[in-house]
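Hi C.,

You asked whether I'd gotten around to modeling the 1306-residue construct. I have! Everything is below, sequence then structure, no commentary in between.
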Amino acid sequence: MDSVPRLTSVLTLLFSCLWHLGLAATNYNCDDPLSSLLSPMAFSSSSDLPGSHAAAQLNRRIGTGGWSPADSNTQQWLQMDLGNRVEITAVATQGRYGSSDWVTSYSLMFSDTGRNWKQYKQEDNIWKFAGNMNADSVMHHKLLHSVRARFIRFVPLEWNPSGKIGMRIEAYGCSYKSDVADFDGRSSLLYRFNQKLMSTLKDVISLRFKSMQGDGVLFHGEGQRGDHITLELQKGRLALHLNLDDSKPRFSSSLPSATLGSLLDDQHWHSVLIERVGKQVNFTVDKYTQHFRTKGETDALDIDYELSFGGIPVPGKPGTFLKKNFHGCIENLYYNGVNIIDLAKRRKHQIYTVGNVTFSCSEPQIVPITFINSSSSYLLLPGTPQIDGLSVSFQFRTWNKDGLLLSTELSEGSGTLLLSLEGGALRLEIQKVTERAAEILTGSSLNDGLWHSVSINARRNRITLTLDNDAASPTQDTTRVQIFSGNRYYFGGCPDNFNDSQCFNPINAFQGCMRLIFIDNQPKDLISVQQGSLGNFSDLHIDLCSIKDRCLPNYCEHGGSCSQSWTTFYCNCNDTGYMGVTCHNSLYEQSCEVYRHQGNAAGFFYIDSDGSGPRAPLQVYCNITEDKIWTSIQHNHTELTRVRGAHPDKPYIMAIDYGGSMEQLEAVIEDSEHCEQEVAYHCRRSRLLNTPDGTPFTWWIGRSNERHPYWGGAPPGVQQCECGLDESCLDIRHFCNCDADKDEWTNDTGFLSFKDHLPVTQIVITDTNRSNSEAAWRIGPLRCYGDRHFWNAASFYTEASYLHFPTLHAEFSADISFFFKTTALSGVFLENLGIKDFIRLEISSPSEITFAIDVGNGPIELIVQSPSPLNDNQWHYIWAERNLKETTLQVDSLPKMTRETSEEGHFRLQLNSQLFIGGTSSRQKGFLGCIRSLHLNGQKLDLEERAKVTNGVRPGCPGHCSSYGSTCQNGGKCVEKHSGYFCDCTNSAYEGPFCRKEVSAVFEIGTSVTYMFQEPYPVTKDISLSSSAIYIDTAPSKENIAFSFVTSKAPSLLLYINSSQDFLAVLLCRNGSLQVRYQINREEVHVFTIDVENFANRQMHNLKMSREGREFTIQMDQRPELTYTFSPEVEFRAARSLTLGKITETPGLDSEVAKANVQGFIGCLSSVQYNHIAPLKAALRHTTSAPVTIQGTLRESTCGSVMDSDVSAVTTVHSSSDPFGKTDEREPLTNAVRSDSAVIGGVIAVVIFIIFSIIGIMTRFLYQHKQSLRTNQMKEKEYPENLDSSFRNDIDLQNTVSECKREYFI
């Protein structure tokens, strides 16, 4: 590439830097008084007090000693004409000399022409300056950002209530010089290079512009090979097209690289700065900057021949332009340090002018007006009545979908004309007393903030509505009706309490801007309206359009889309994963631990590790077990994968994709106590790591893109496998099984658990290219447990103690959440101070939480009152949020307190002190108690680490079970841990993290489970049950029995308890009724029958029985309890055994029990509990160690899965705690490492399996048919009588006349 262009670009860039430095030096000490040499004629005002004059320089004492208006109201103003555009950096005010007249607050406006004023803003709001407290003291204000203008206007807002408005004023600054060019929309400047090609690695382009047009090209350059750069106005926004890639299309057919700014067609100056270094670009419009990286093959921008400013001329066609030209003024236009306008003014040869370009800015004398109130703003203008026809036209812009634009009463009884916005469309109606004479509807989305022109014309019985006549798409809508013009035209709305039929407004008043109002083809002088000599108005800003784009910048977070009305903005959070008025709050919890704490079972969840922070949610699997909560993150290669033909010159490389960013994965890892990933390498003549000092044949890449030559089970820095550490490798000379290089399959499998290296992002294999050499690898999901933050707590035990952290940075939005518990009456949880701003959260009384915040507009307090005390030493949850739209406080599940935020005034929360937790900077009102899981704007504060080095504060906080013990259900016991708690389900018939998961099994014909009560037995290892043991010689004073069942077979025996010579049996009779038979003292049998329905109906039924002393209670499902009291002579004996299903030892059985015991129980039993013993759980979980005997087939299942199926043919339902599945990986998976012979063998196996399955099905069918015949014969033999099949709905206790039993029916 030619070196001359590159040298030129470097020199121009250097010159640009020097120019910026020079400009800064020019503005230094820019604080001279600007009004001292002005004549009195330079001052003007809205009105003057009789005998006074507007000339009111600071410290003026002659005459009336300053300015006062004729009337003191908010429509008054005082302005100075400074003669030329100057740079204004400060202002000062006094009251009127020797009087009680002074202004206590005011606003500023600026203009270049004395028309089309612009209000001074700070923090995107009209700034309210503090005024004077007396007549003579000077109140000086340094402007946060300087203003370049010729006219400055002071607008009093408030004044001394004991006097009137009175002002003396001064402005400070310095002269301002600029080079200006005026483009008329048909002209441009061409900057031609000294050589054919300008190639730049860096570019700096700066300019200022003003325009009334929303579209037009500011500059353009392109190369023959496709490079181009273009800056153009598009609908009032600036679009930058930048391309360094030769293969990309021209800018006219491509989307902009960046779009910035809004409402830039307001005829005010806007600054633009473009900085490019290679592909990195900073694009700045006014105070907003967008950073982006442009695409391209090189870092150089190659432009051929020239750059054009103001338009894109078509070569060879003079006066023809490729796109719409810029129409307006540009000043201080610099391209890489070259002052383009200065060259043009001096007519240098590098500049070629197309069309008419002048070097002073022409200012159109257009007066806009703003309707500021949706209920009371209006403008009344007179018309010429009784003309046959009508002609009205104007331009408007707004954000509101609805509003009245025009209302007038027509002459000659031709009706009322209404022009309005409805749903963003334009509606014209002519209404008469008895009918709607005409209606025209046109346009859509006219509330887009752009200027739209409207014209209404009525001539010769035809009315025409024209919308945007200079646009390409609109069409004219016409209708036939005869109308006569009226004499009053109401724009924007109607006066308050106006009953005259000349103004009618069926909807809201218009909020927005209008300009260029013509009535009867005559322009209306709105300045005369302002001066009171024409028409009338209310709640208008005249001579300025104060429209504001509330979506710039976009305060909707996390990709939320912004829409707006005139007064506020709205956020659409759909498909973002966030919620709230600004899409600030995540829809998801921050970890699996939180989901478990909410009572969720295992499953797939989204977790958002930083809550309201910038990281997006990530989908994980939460494996919630009794002792650990595992977070599993799957990736795209979890199956065993075969590798062949890899060698060092052509390695096998596979990248691992987890479906999330590395920042998301790192956050999950850092927030966990332990993380691991299982890695497996199956090999045949394929070496893994070589020797500890040799070059490894296989390695993996971790999170930092670093190569790691160690394998699962070994620590970092040791080039070994797990077998090398425990000296169990196949060949003791090597440190991995695969390094033995055997011609047979073996493997090295283990877990990687060094968190700083995880997750595995890539695997590289290089030794599978030798004869008979192959390998297969598998990398498991990333698995972590232990939330380091959810249980992170600190205990404050002195009022003067606190923890301090860095300043909370939350200018626009802040959310605070934490748990607390205390016994104190009051105390401050959190405080952070600024110069004026602050934020504070405290418990202000035992039942009140107070959230106080001040962003500069005065403090706001939200108070939530609890109906019960909050200082009860139980954990309570607080969530507080402040954003640009509302402030919110919520405590536990109490109703949320919300207060809307003012759209005007200060909105940045500016803090500068340390953040105090548990106390204040004054060391007063400190908090006594515990704070846990503190989050600020998604950031997790480590309270425990800070508490370790802080006096008066201890890390951690015991006593979780006092708050969360109730989450352990069904007899589960809450056990404290250092970080949280867990539910011990040892004595429960249920299991799972909260002892809520049923333990159930399917019983077939002949299935028997017998539990022997011989000695204490713990059903969970390491936990003693001696306190609840049942001994053979001890009769418990209480007995509790509970279980659930599903069956379709009757008669059947569900449960049988043997107590020496007594028994208790639960059975289903032949008619499906449930019977409890209780034999006590060998002779007497108490029979309790529940026959309200057939319980053998394939539905889940729950039975509870309890005995306390001599009182015996039975409850079936949710029906009323049956209670019976045994006689004092009854003696209860301890149980020896409990049997579920068929009793195998039948001698001495009660006859009815024997009948039900023929088949035992066929169906599903669930959650069987006898006092503190869970016999079914022991049979399924501890078969080898528990005193339980199983005969027949017992298959674990969930009873819910068999309710709608044939319980006699239920298949086992297996559930795995690992959703991704586990496989025996001692050998490679068949589908991953297979050969042709394996495929043939598989086909043969499938055929054989099908044949045997058919034989098995036929055999089972014949067996069941035979068994059914035998069962029917037995039923006929044992149940010859007809049982009573009527069901009783009420409890009926009836003593049967019998010597050996008592029977009761329910």
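If it helps when you're writing up: The chain has a mean pLDDT of 84.

Thanks,
B.
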